[in-house]
Amino acid sequence: MSQETAITSFKKFQQSWIEQLQLHLNHLRSAQNHHRNSVEGDEDRLREAAERVMEHCREYHRVQWTTTEKDVIGVMAAPWLSALERSLHWVGGWRPTTLFHLIYTESSILFESRIVDILRGFRTGDLSDLSPSQFRVKFVKGRKVSELQCETVKEENAITEELSEWQDDASELVMGTMTDRDQRIRRLTEIVHRADDLRLRTVTGVVELLRPLQQAEFLIAAAELRTGVSGWGTSHDRRRTSDI
Question: The whole model's pTM is what?
Answer without folding.
Answer: 0.83
